[in-house]
């Protein structure tokens, strides 16, 4: 990222100030208070926003008012020029960012675009100020070394500052050999208190035991008191239940009476029943008149019955076709049920020991699990067979090779030993004969004896394997062990699979001795059995419903039992008989009409009355509770019972108020049981009271003894002091751990950075330091955790041996070296604010040449009032902005 131009609308002393940065090395020149530092803060504000008001920060807001802010144009790789405009009073100080193509982006997107550059990184790494050099004068050698390394690794001193702060806090809390740190003081105090507590505790073991006994007895007494209170409450309740038991019995009786089925709307039922009686009476009057008329007309009893029940007969006739269809459907269903039952029996014969009442067909997901399990099982069995064959093969080879080697070895050994023993026997025999000839009988005898012994040993030798054969056998024995381990592993897998099989076999009725692959072969038959059983259940349900409807239809014939053979006829015969009866009565009616004996005068009124009676009957029956037979007797009975309910309900409510708090509706009570319980409670309560009195006396005695030992309060105070110290120490130790951990993390970070970046940094720093010192120093190295500077004569110098100016130059070389190492990232321009004021002319010229060299890869902006730098910039034709 590079700065292109800026406009300070109102910022500090500047109003409508425009500056263009045309060169990569630019000097902003001006005397003190000319506004150079203001320019620096303006650039940072435009990039990262207005800082929050703090006493330590200078406020650049103009006193004369106006828009506080301005604009800054930067150039970013891959994005071109980007204009950032920011005013504190507009949009809460957020930036308005415009890309090169005119597109506007948010401030959050600007931060992403600038990343990893942050305000802190801009201030700590890419800004060099003279105050940083002044701080070097007051650092010890160790701290200076650490600072220079941190600056070289991270570009700033912040990590050293934080590490130093953590280390100081850590030392202030604890030192292994310290006396004044807070944790050391608290530990000493804690040891003193702890020893006092132990001493006091040892002296008061009896006191501790008494306290424990007191707590136990108090808990026992508390439990006993709770139990006594419970028993007294129970006794009082039992006494009240015994007194109110007759009332409870009466309430139970009334609840049973009121619990019987009745009408939900008694008023409507009463009105309907009155209408029903009126219609029935009218119908009876008409029937009497009709009967008299029919008797005079000489009509047959069957015809009289037909006329009297014509409405019911017509109803049966209207349902005749539907019932015939129902009958045919039942015949078809019976055939299908029989077929499916046969199929079920055949499938069960193919799947013996299968109970269709349980589960026997897995779901789709479990079928997939079975397939996977089958593959695993088959694979394990195959691998097991392969390994067992391999095991037998290797074992046979070992036995064969061992036997062959033994024979060869025995044969060779015997031959060699035989030769040696033969030669030895001949030698000893020759020596013995010579000694005997020379009359050395003892030596001669022993030699002859030795020859005989060697002859006896001839041909005998110990069999040994050759090294090559032994090595081959060892390799095969090792292979045999590996195969055995593999077989054991496969057997463990098979055991695990067997456990899964057992669960599945118990769930779905598979045979455990079969393989899972055989189970899968049964699935089509089991699936077919599921479908057949489901269809059979559905067919049986339809058959039952059809038969129920047909039986209900037959029951409606009951009023015609004197004229039709209901009991002895089949459904088909009954329907035929009904058809014939209706046809016969129709012919007789036609014949009577032709004879002038018309009886239609009574038919219409009777039909109307019968229709009204039927309607009222249906409505009355609809009010009957479920399970009650539909009859007028039941209607009349329930009407009477309902009239008695109001009085019973009032009585029940009165009794409930008296007994609801005493009795549980979900429990049955017996008077004898209640009396027995009350008698047991009367015996248990006094005994419990007596035990409580004994416990109270024992507790009072223990309290008196403990109070005597606690009269000085020493132990209690020691305990409290110890607890307080433990809490303080825990908090201080946690704080010390936090500081120590942070210190170690930062040190580890520096060490890691030193390993990864130190070589490159030292090379760059050497080049820069060599240039800054006019080649007085030619090398910067790091040996034994220490920076060393080598001069032209090859002499090494420690940092503490450098002059103040050389220290400053080393610091500047390290800072600029870090920036040069990261120049390819082009994160930010480098802004240097009078970092060389106390340099002499030669050192300044060397620094200026280094900055010019560094500007080839980085944009560098110098804020200075140094006339020598101004002259250098003019000679080198670099950018100059005069404030």
- CATH architectural category of the domain at 1-126 and 827-883: 3-Layer(aba) Sandwich
Number of helical elements? 25
What overall form do the CA principal axes indicate? elongated
CATH topology of the domain at 1-126 and 827-883: Rossmann fold
What is the mean pLDDT?
Answer: 78
Uncertain regions spanning at least 5 consecutive residues:
436-441, 459-465
Q: Total number of β-strand segments?
A: 14
Strand order of the largest sheet: 2-1-4-5-6-7
CA-based gyration radius: 59 Å
Sheet bearing the most strands, described?
Answer: 6 strands, antiparallel
Domain YhaN AAA: 1-201
Coiled coil: 200-241, 280-343, 473-556
Transmembrane segments: 417-434, 440-457
Keywords: Coiled coil, Membrane, Transmembrane, Transmembrane helix
Q: What characteristics describe this protein?
A:
single chain; 883 residues; alpha/beta; Rossmann fold; six-stranded antiparallel β-sheet; 69% helix; P-loop_NTPase; YhaN_AAA; coiled coil; membrane
Explained architecture:
Helices cover about 70% and strands about 10% of the residues. The strands form 3 sheets. It has a 6-stranded antiparallel beta sheet with strand order 2-1-4-5-6-7. Strands 8-12-13-3-14 form a 5-stranded parallel beta sheet, sandwiched between helices. Helix 8 runs antiparallel to helix 21 (about 670-710), helix 10 (about 265-295) packs antiparallel against helix 20 and helix 22 packs across helix 23 (about 805-820). Among the domains are: about 1-125 and about 825-883, Rossmann fold (3-Layer(aba) Sandwich), CATH 3.40.50.300; about 365-510. The model is unreliable at about 435-440 and about 460-465 (pLDDT under 50). The chain contains 25 helices and 14 strands. Keywords: Coiled coil, Membrane, Transmembrane, Transmembrane helix. This is YhaN AAA domain-containing protein.
